[in-house]
Amino acid sequence: MFKLFYENPYLRETTAKIESVERKGKKIRIKLDRTIFYPEGGGQPSDRGIIEGEGFRIKVEKAEGKEEIWHEGKLEGREPKEGEKVKLLLDWEWRYENMKQHSGQHVLSAVLKKLYDSDTTGFQIFERYNKIEINFDGKLSWEHVLKAEKLANEIIWKDLEVKVEYYEELPKEVAKELRKQLSDKIKDRVRIVKVGDIDIIPCGGTHVRSTKEVGLVKVINFYKKSKNIWRVEFVCGNRALEFLDEILEDYWKSLNEMPNKNRPLVERIKEFKEGLKALEDEKTKLRKELWEWKGKALLSEAEEINGIKIVSRIESLPMKDAEAFAIYLVDKNPNTIALIMGKSYLIFAKNKGIQKVSMVELLKEILSEFGGGGGGGEVLAKGGGFKAKPEEVLKKAREKLKHSLQS
Ligand SMILES: [Zn+2]
Known about the structure:
Blueprint: E1 2-3, H1 4-7, E2 13-24, E3 27-32, E4 34-35, E5 49-53, E6 56-64, E7 70-77, E8 85-90, H2 92-116, E9 120-125, E10 130-135, H3 142-156, E11 162-167, H4 172-175, E12 190-195, E13 199-202, E14 217-226, E15 229-236, H5 237-257, H6 265-300, E16 303-305, E17 308-314, H7 319-332, E18 336-341, E19 346-350, H8 359-370, E20 373-376, E21 380-384, H9 390-406
Parallel strand pairs: 1-4, 17-18
Antiparallel strand pairs: 2-3, 2-8, 3-7, 5-6, 5-8, 6-7, 9-10, 10-15, 11-12, 12-13, 14-15, 16-17, 18-19, 19-21, 20-21
Helix pairs in contact: 2-3, 8-9
The protein binds zinc ion.
């Protein structure tokens, strides 16, 4: 398997010969004598593209493998055969962006090493952004991160050459310059990537020729992952532009939603929150007033049995609000019991001073008659799911309560 992406990472089109064909469910997998498809590895995602032959076409979604690279995708047309010649076409936009992200990472990692002696312990390119993991003792701040970003961009704009060198055995003078020591796993020839004179590291990915092509490195977020490991998220190239455009769009749209559209947005949000708080306070005040009036009206027409007032009402409020009102009413008014029935709930509440009846006992009687479920305690009980009309349930509850109070 000849890896053309190492010879020339800018090669986006070539021909090859099929060596093996495999079926994998609805997908097809093929192995070629040579390829321009970079297989997933080292944090860089797999290439995508098209493999075309006489009478078939494979939409390559994934290339994988180390020595043997398999190209996997959806087949259109007839099944390809061993020995056939095919044309390979890369999704160049995808690959070139990945090359920019990857090369930008080398620069950012080199700067973090230089400024803070931080090693890059992990790297991943995602569809829309990239992530590195670094070690950093103490608290990483935006100040640290932006300082590194500034220096990384200064390096990128210097138009430094990115060179790839191969060594059968690594010379000592090269080995001591490496940002990261060579893995013991690497037994055969070593691939070294140099970015000007600022970074030298073993790497198996694809890179741009000049740092200038990276365009921009923008850190978008960072956070602590574990003890001294921090994740730094960043974007390069066109993906940086797309990312910033999205944030700007969100910013302007959000600002436009504000009653006062003057910048900055954070000030408008603070005003908005203050306004909301004032409205909430006003609402609470008005609700208390409403409850007072409502309570008075209900008490004036309540039945009174042995000095206990029974307020019963079919309620349209949601259960939470009805419950709050019932509690308010019985707490404020001694010798009062509230029976509140909603569409799907029933609330019994009594003033704590009333000894004679238990709300949960009353509820149990109702449940045994109309089905449903619920529970509660002496002063407050709640239920629902009755097999009868609310009016009917409420009427029965009133009768049972009156009976208890009269005896
Ligand atoms: Zn690399």
